[in-house]
Design goal:
2 copies of one chain form a homodimer.
Chain A (H helix, E strand, L loop, with lengths): L6 E4 L2 E3 L7 E2 L1 E5 L2 E6 L1 H8 L6 E4 L4 E4 L1 E6 L1 H8 L2 E2 L6 H13 L7 E6 L11 H7 L5 E5 L4 E4 L1 H6 L12 E5 L5 E7 L3 H4 L7 H17 L2 E8 L1 H12 L6 E7 L3 H7 L10 E9 L33 H13 L4 E5 L2 H17 L8 E4 L5 H4 L1 H4 L3 E4 L1 H20 L5 H7 L3 E3 L10 H10 L18 H7 L2 H6 L17 E4 L16 E6 L2 E5 L2
InterPro entries (chains A, B): Amidohydro_3, Metal-dep_hydrolase_composite, Metal_Hydrolase, YtcJ-like
GO molecular function (chains A, B): hydrolase activity, acting on carbon-nitrogen (but not peptide) bonds
Protein name (chains A, B): Amidohydrolase
Amino acid sequence: MSQKIDLIIHNANIYTFDSGQPRAEALAIADGRIIAAGSVSDIRDLDGANAARDTLDLKGATLIPGLNDSHTHFAWWSLIMQELKLAGINKLNKVLDLVAESAEVTPVGAWLQGQGWDKNLWGDEFPNRMMLDRVAPRHPVALMSKDAHLLWVNSLALQLAGLTRDTPEVEGGEITRDAQGEPTGILKENAMSLVHRVIPEPTIEQVEAAIEMALPEAHRTGLTAVHSIEDAIGFAAFQNLRAQGKLSLRTAVLLGNWAIPHLQALGLRQGFGDEMLWLAQIKFFLDGTLGSQTAAMFEPFDNSPDHRHDNCGMFRMDPEDFERQARQAIRSGFGIAVHVIGDHAARLGLDVIEKMQREEDSGRLRNRLEHVQIVTPQDLLRFAASRIIASCQPTHATTDRDVAERYWGYERAARSYQYRALLYSGAPVAFGSDVPVESIDPRKGIFAAVSRRREGENRPAFFAQECLTVGEAIRGFTYGAAYAAGDERRRGRIAPGMLADLTALAQDIFVTPEDEIPQTPVVVTLVGGSPVYLSL
Amino acid sequence: MSQKIDLIIHNANIYTFDSGQPRAEALAIADGRIIAAGSVSDIRDLDGANAARDTLDLKGATLIPGLNDSHTHFAWWSLIMQELKLAGINKLNKVLDLVAESAEVTPVGAWLQGQGWDKNLWGDEFPNRMMLDRVAPRHPVALMSKDAHLLWVNSLALQLAGLTRDTPEVEGGEITRDAQGEPTGILKENAMSLVHRVIPEPTIEQVEAAIEMALPEAHRTGLTAVHSIEDAIGFAAFQNLRAQGKLSLRTAVLLGNWAIPHLQALGLRQGFGDEMLWLAQIKFFLDGTLGSQTAAMFEPFDNSPDHRHDNCGMFRMDPEDFERQARQAIRSGFGIAVHVIGDHAARLGLDVIEKMQREEDSGRLRNRLEHVQIVTPQDLLRFAASRIIASCQPTHATTDRDVAERYWGYERAARSYQYRALLYSGAPVAFGSDVPVESIDPRKGIFAAVSRRREGENRPAFFAQECLTVGEAIRGFTYGAAYAAGDERRRGRIAPGMLADLTALAQDIFVTPEDEIPQTPVVVTLVGGSPVYLSL
């Protein structure tokens, strides 16, 4: 009896997240799976006469289960990554040079888009369409400002939008005009939509190309897998890449509730697909957001900008309609993943899932609430009791903290983003990024969960009692995300039989100062035992 | 460098269908794939120090690539397999005993269905409802006669159908009645629909259970894979079995053109799934059948039973609608599989596929015509030129021969079921059964392609110039079917890297008298290197 070994990883500082053997120094991998973890001599003995084809010396790097992001909009992010990155550029000419370069490699007539320009960095001069016309006369150009409140376009873009001196103003926006009344090429707030609505939707080829370019960037941050909320074109693009053998990131696709009638008609079931790409839960939008004070709350927002004292946010779906559609999804063999930001939305999500568990579901399906930014104390305990996954994005806690205190007030903010309380309660917790709303980088997510501060920010933690240990934070991005996909028997731990999805970090982030976590280099990312990123 | 081996198969008479090494004696298998084929000593050397976990001595049996049926209705067949099999029973009491036994193990109130009873075998006495009432008073019973023109039901079935002495007769049918005018329980022809319409559709659990029971029967005939035309419930049942690890038959699912809008809406692509279950082409129905003289022909049917001299059959889809839907399917990333029986239908199918190849498809998609029972000489050559798959069911040639000569006449029949001519032309040919219309058994299909006679029939071959060699027939059920699924790089030959799907036969059907082919025992069926049927 013998055992083929494809790869031995040794000289590694391994955190297995497997209770049977929490630490190891070496691994043996065959056919994309881990076949053994142990000391160097354990693995050497296993190897024996039967020399492995390949070995990887990690030179002491720290190896953890492959990072897995439980909440992305991957195709959307990929498309944004294709746009010109103008953030931090402190000279107007530099921006124009980048536009000129981009125009040279882009087919004439195609839109050039970019984002992140900041006129404050070059002396507060408003740019105009003529500047863009000089460097890109034959491409429509639309560049979003850093704060996303200004759109800078060229003459061709204005022309395609049918925007002239005669165009009336838009409620809640402004078409900036020169002394003669001609649009200058700067559109403010709601006026931006005049141009946005004429920019064509990307083709499937463009989405496919964008995802292909974005994959290495995801692996560079240590990611081996994502859950991604996709529309039909994004899902199709992922399938095309998979069919060509180009998909190196395990991707659980969540389609929106728009898909239910079609999934029903076809008889599709959650899980259909393969180990690289498969259908996961159905995504619902139950309420709005904290930032826009549209999250569904039991008590009114504080400091509501419209001076209302009774703004409890809103449900984006009628509760009865939500229940009806949730039932359809579950009857069709899909779990549900429900966007809930406010405590009232969380209550409804929990109520409906528990009702479905009683009335419809044998318990086979995994149901989850996304974001879970604030819940009442009594509801917090229901995640554990009913095995409902809390799918959270730790970076939100750090970017939202001031907004949370402003609109929820201190007492309510104290029960927001309660990752520690959820873990103590025994809730299944999965972590993700919500990219492109936040950075895709899971190291930033781990740092946020551990520190509850923004990088480089000299402030105390946001409710420090909710800070996690490094191990707890990583577990959310590994086992937790795998569990949310119903996939914890093959991913999320380093143990025999598990898929060989692994992330190696240059430093041991369990012991380095927490501020170093976000910059800790990833040295190797492996998916199914194959390196998809290597920088040893 | 070493190589794990899971299984060595030796002492086998192997036909590899791989031109590099057509014959072998032994195989090495690892991880579900063939890693080597050769002489016993070749494989022994490969094995070396590294003893395989398992060996299988085939005792001289003949091993061929796993049989693959390119045209089944597997879920439908599975459901029929659940019904009482009454064919050949020569005593009325024996039929009643079987119904009584079945009633004992079936929940009260559930329908008991059966088929194949033949009153000629028990002396021509018409049975009646009272006989069934005695053995199954609390189950509605519906038993179809062998010729499918009579339905024998019990009183409960009549009651559920609302069928009484007052029910008016049905056009083209007869409700048999006794002297008092009461229905006797025998319904003829169109009157059968009065009961059929009240029999509930099977639940997904029933379909799932039926498929699970049918899988061993498929493997017993040597099948390792099928293409199956399914509706939503059948597809869902296959997915449920796959999710439970119970699907042992590789299944390429063809959904009907009803699915196109849903596939488009979701962005699903052909090929989505895994190596056991995946989405294949979209199935269209273009014309009728030979037996009902509804196949679309260029020239009228001979001897049309309605005494028309201008019956050229019919298109079941408007040609423009067919083209429009075919274009939608292909734009959505699906090849098309088109039911064409008549030569006019074949022409339209070829025309539209070639047009789509020019206008839409990069050549990546595999398109196919199903049945291809008669084509004009000039159209026959287009399959090869345009790489359009002719997906044929050799058993049809032998069961249809008299009908073909009657309704097409001798000259046209001479260009029907032209498997030899198609192969000579270079056409890609795939073979299947059309189960449950014909037996699922591929040995019967191979025999039909080779002999062009029915089993046990003492007649010359039906146009003997179209008879195939055994190797050609097997190739249609192996490589040909794999090619039709776009899957010839991993299935259909015995060669390193191919999936270890294999069928072992007790005799060498390449040399046995052809009449022995249908009864040649299958001794082993392997899927992915694992035995799914074993009778050594």
